[in-house]
Amino acid sequence: xxxxxxxxxxxxxxxSANSATSEPEEQRxxxxxxxxxxxxxxxxxxAEELSASFFDRIDEETWERLEEALILxxxxxxxxxxxxxxxxxxxxxxxxxxxxxxxxxxxxxxxxEVASTGRAPIDLSGEPAVLLMVGVNGTGKTTTxxxxxxxxxxxxxxxVVLAAADTYRAAAAEQLEKxxxxxxxxxxxxxxxxxxxxxxxxxxxxxxxxxADVVIVDTAGRLHTQGNLMDELAKVRRVIxxxxxxxxxxxxxxxxxxxxxxxxxQAQLFAEAAEIDGVVLTKLDGTxxxxxxxxxxxxxxxxxxxxxxxxxxxxxxxxxPTDFANALLAP
Amino acid sequence: MFDQLSDRLQATLSDVRSRGKLSEDDVDAAMREIxxxxxxxxxxxxxxxxxxxxxxxxxxxxxxxxxLDPGQQVVKIVNEELAELMGGAGRELAYASGGPxxxxxxxxxxxxxxTACAKLARFLRENGKRDVALAACDVYxxxxxxQLVTVGGRVGAHVYxxxxxxxxxxxxxxxxEEAKRxxRDALIVDTAGRLHIDQELMxxxxxxxxxxxxxxVLLVVDAMTGQDxxxxxxxxxxxxxxxxVVMTKLDGDARGGAALSVRAVTGKPILFASxxxxxxAFDRFHPDRMASRILGMGDVLSLIEKAESQIDEQQAIDxxxxxxxxxxxxxxxxxxxxxxxxxxxxxxxxxxLPGMGAMKQLKNVDVDEGQLDRVEAIxxxxxxxxRANPALIKGSRRKxxxxxxxxxxxxxxxxxxxxxxxxxxxxxxxxxxxxxxxQLAQMVGGAPRPKFKRR
Lengths: 331, 455
What we know:
The complex is a heterodimer of chains A (about 325) and B (about 450). Chain A is of the alpha/beta class. Chain A contains 13 helices and 10 strands. In chain A, helix 11 crosses helix 12 (about 290-300). Chain A starts with a helix and ends with a helix. In chain B, helix 12 links the parallel strand 6 (about 245-250) and strand 7 (about 270-275). In chain B, helix 1 packs antiparallel against helix 3 (about 25-40) and helix 3 (about 25-40) runs antiparallel to helix 4 (about 45-60). Chains A and B meet through helix 4, helix 8 and helix 11 of A and helix 3, helix 8 and helix 11 of B.
């Protein structure tokens, strides 16, 4: 069974109060239908492609082709080598049967295990809970925030305040404003060019005054190599913590699924500047597999928490390691 | 990390010199290193495969076998072949003979199209197209039109927009009519980011193309893209028939293997590189530099050429001896400094060193040439004995040197200390270890950013 929203969110004391309103029946059916569709697609593909091409015979070529598939999914050479080596050893030692089905099942297990490193729910127990969104330009921060806000308000009945702390990019606040309208969230913004920390500060204050449940802070996209902008991010965090000790309760990094090996550097440097709690893997509706998050989990212990699968409000799901492992190997 | 492919190849092939012959096993080992380095740089798996196959043949040929230093030779060949694959000299945009030059921009979401549109507009204005206009055809992403209007304004380009309710194909056609009527020199058409597998939107792109008949269609590709770059480029080549590529976000530390893959698979050249937040950070693309970047090896060859032309060989040999015996003096440092400075500004030289590109500390160093002048002055104010044995320099000597060089005693002291550090480091290097980048940065007089650890 795939990971549910309830499993992915820690709502603290709100848990019992809101459980009744969570996932209206019709909505749930919609989610399950999409999930089933995508799953059956990848399962079918797996059954056909994997067992046929990878595991018909188990020999040197099997491992090479498996390596190739993982590399093509952007899992990176070190992680790929580790996974394949482990599977190969287990098969040689006899702990995994040398038939196609058993090897395939074990491979999915290993991949899911790596992808589960450091797994924890998104912490929304704070009152208000403060969620900070960071990432490189164009990875889908603002869109993700719109979707998260919509889910929290539609499915959990939470009131959400959005902080437009991307005061750099032209029209970034306007973009967030449109998402706020769609999601039924409130928007707090400053002038273009104002201090992003100040916008976050004001948003938390506004959320407190109105008794809102969650504040989501949007930040400007920045390359992880821009030292001054990374310092700025650390400062935004400090300002938030000053306004509300313990906040931000959750910091999420958006990673574009098309990203290659540079994603590892992104995660590493953002984690140094902003203490990342998890990753949102965006744009999984394309052909890219997003295998770089496997390397991020493996080498840095930072888990994926959410996945973005399209441009509609409902196209955001909790990350499920097994589904991901299956999809990674699908052609 | 595979920062120093060059070093790793040297290590892999180091014992070849003593054996005097390169075996097929040696070449295979080298190919493995190259394969890993290219994969780490996000060059497409299939491209890597065919690339190393061709490379292997060349490496088994005469030029490597007969070479004294096969490691270096292999690196050189890899670099040449990569640059070749990336496409020799860049090509110019196709300008219209009469009426506005029309350029259509396309790409995935978040690749940086809107920003690239404004940057290209600025570039065209700087290069003879005085009156450049933009067409806002991204009606899907919230506030995309607002963004284009703002950045367009910043580069002095007129923006044709009809809000978000009109059809993108119609907006493009209308903008072209207007541009013709108003006698603009160029029109750049911004389109919405779209997935290459989204048939509906890809067809829309094809329709825009047919309506405005662009002189060039440019595909915008994020330099951080991984293995998927090839599939994306193939799809866009089919529907949008793009003519060239704009690589964006090249100011990051991504190796940009996607550039190579796209070029290798579609045969379309990379025309422009976008390298920063500022709207002027945009220029023509240099394939050869990209090859070195992908390998992470710096511009070793031009550095060697420069050094050869400037450095007296006998002096260099003497110096090496002194370094090995740890007899390096301030006098030698002065000579050395003068020779190195003959090669040009220090910051440029550092950039050419292999592996240096990856040292963050050095990237942020501003080399202060005035500081070097002061160092020269201080050393010149010392007696030969003091230069040979800086430990002599105490109170009154320090004061005299400071007076003589127009500096303060603290500065003299600082130099002596730095020199000590440098000697320590050289001992380190003579024993075959890599220098500590922090120390290097201090030596060249910059302010290092110690916060970042190097992977």
